[in-house]
């Protein structure tokens, strides 16, 4: 018996796709609002005694520290997602993320309460990390496990495009607040409004997620009473190399992507003590435009990988990303906001090709009984090794060497690691995802297998 998708109507599939897009966009809006604020205001408001240079590094460290807690979120979500279902986990992560984000918007600054301010900021950022660690796996499985076999890539791209939509919303909101509350007004309280707005988004997102049916693959697992008693233990006992290689694939994308989503480029381009000192609002709008091109490239990758395969799409993507990593800083360093925007748009072409196919490839790599745990933990580990401290590392490289091209070489190295992970895994396009095919799902995973 294989999972019967014939009972899933086109309307149901569209509802699931829409719910995963909206829910993921809301989650990542919350996450990216923090990263944007970390690059623009948190160094001043929460780490002022450290001075402008070290205060910025500390601010970026708070972006990275949340990644250390993503595996905790992935472990918890994977355990419950493989035992009680995908949908309840998705609702819980959305509410946790929204509540943490709204509370950040209410925090007093260092000037008001001293050391308690950065400590509370870090605590809420940790809760964001726990939520983000559990969010992604559930969203992609709901999308891919509802999809027809020949369109899994396209359906899997739906939660993926929620990430650039989240960046678009976050950048546009910050740019709007900068325009409405210029100068000290933005620092005083204009930056807080995007955080508080998350309450509205969370109500919409949680309602949508509650409205969709449970994944048909998990429904069959539950019907057959084949839920793993200890999914995490089973995962690492049998598939540790797969988890590590899947994480390596994501390293190359997340390190490069967090140049904008982690706030580094925004800080680099607008730093009043730096060589550029560009207008904050203009840079935020350039990032907003690049998020649109990232969205389109990610969606295109979902369609492309249904035609040429997941692995081939990735290989093309790494080549494109490697080229445009090297053109990014020469364009940014011209001091032209337009050319900065061009550099970011070009970069998103490779980012989209190495992100749009990730949902479906991860889903097809892991067996049904440990799938939620596998995709969640691989994603969380990849984000730690790649994106977690990429803005901090980039800031350190820039300050230590005085050369932005050294930052580019670091990003090129991370891209090469992603390519290595890709070459060591097999394409499993169209494999049966149902628990009835669990035995077949455990073979033919690695490139070295016969």
Written description of the protein model:
There is one protein chain. 77% of the residues lie in helices and 0% in strands. The protein has 450 residues and is mainly α. The protein is globular. Helix 6 crosses helix 18 and helix 12 runs parallel beside helix 18. It has a single domain, classed as MFS general substrate transporter like domains (Growth Hormone, Chain: A), CATH 1.20.1250. The two termini are 27 Å apart. InterPro entries: MFS (IPR011701), MFS_dom (IPR020846), MFS_trans_sf (IPR036259).
Which features characterize this protein?
transport; Growth Hormone, Chain: A; 77% helix; MFS_dom; 450 residues; mainly alpha; MFS; membrane
Q: Give me the CATH superfamily.
A: MFS general substrate transporter like domains
CA-based shape: globular
How confident overall, as mean pLDDT? 86
Largest sheet: none
Regions with little confidence, pLDDT below 50 for 5+ residues:
none
Write down the domain tally: 1
Q: Roughly how much helix do the residues carry, as a percent range? A: over 70%
| Secondary structure tally: strands | 0
What is the top-level CATH class? Mainly Alpha
- Counting helices, strands and paired strands, the structural category is mainly alpha
Q: What separation lies between the terminal Cα atoms?
A: 27 Å
CATH topology, by name, is: Growth Hormone, Chain: A
**DSSP strand (E) fraction?**
under 5%
Indicate the CATH architecture. Answer: Up-down Bundle
Radius of gyration: 21 Å
Order of helices and strands: HHHHHHHHHHHHHHHHHHHHH
Number of helices: 21
